[in-house]
Amino acid sequence: MSEQTTGSARRRIFIDKRSPDAFDALVRASEAVRATASEAGLDRVTVELVNLRVSQLNGCAYCLDLHTRRALRAGESPQRLGVLPAWRDTDLFTPAERAALDLAEATNDPTDTAAQESAYAAARAVLTEDQISAVIRVAITIGAFNRVSIMSGHPVQAPRRA
What we know:
With 162 residues, the protein is mostly helical. The protein is 68% helix and 2% strand.
C-alpha cells in the first residue's frame, strides 16, 4: 500500500514497507522466538494467548485480528478468547497459561516491579526457566509488532463473504 490522501487526512506511513530489511529482521526474530518457545515446551495456544493478551493491552487491532485467527487455527476455543481480557476471573485457563498471561502483562509494563516479582514467583511454580524466558520473549516480540502496526495504522480487513 502506498501513502495516500483521503480527504484532508493523510494515511500513516507503513513503516514495515518503508524499511523492509528492518521489518524482515523483526520477522526473523519472531520466528526464532516461536522456535524457542516450542523447544521450551510451550504449546502454540499458550503462545497465541500471550500474543493476544499483549495486543489487547496495547490496543493493536491488526495484531488482535491476526492472532485471534491463529489461535483458533491452533485449537483455541471462542469462549476462552472471549473471556481472555478477564482471565483472572475464570477457571478456564490452566495454571501454566495463567502464569504465562501474568508474566506477559508484567513484561508489557516494565515500570511495575511489584507486578514483575509477583509474576515471576507465580511462573516459577509452574513453568521452567526456559519457558519463563520464552514467554517474556514472546511478549517483547509481539509488543514490537504492536507498535509497528499501530504506528503504521495497519487496517483490519473485513472477512470475505462467500
